[in-house]
Write a structure and sequence with these properties.
globular; mainly beta
Length: 94
């Protein structure tokens, strides 16, 4: 099995960030890329049971401007409602 296809260590609670300089040897970052707590513009925050499927939305200059995730408010009790949450990043919009 090549290094590119060898399983990495398991991810932590929320996502993983893997990186490689050559596309064959991969490393996992030592910190989580984000948490399950999201701060809103009105000063409130919410901690979700799950936060997954990250996607970046880029502005006209090619800079990441938004992070989109699927979130789930609760886990268990027959509640599997989820939705897409889009969070602005600290990047100037042209």
């Amino acid at each position: 099995m090549s290094a590119r296809h060898r399983p990495l260590a398991p991810c932590r609670d929320v996502g993983c960030h893997a990186f490689s300089a050559d596309g064959y040897t991969w490393y996992l970052a030592t910190s989580d890329p984000y948490t399950t707590t999201i701060a809103f513009a009105d000063g409130s925050s919410r901690t979700y049971a799950r936060r997954e499927r990250p996607h970046l939305v880029f502005n006209q200059n090619g800079d990441p401007a938004f992070l989109s995730n699927g979130v789930q408010e609760e886990w268990g009790n027959g509640n599997d409602h989820s939705y897409t949450l889009v969070q602005p990043l600290n990047v100037a919009w042209p």
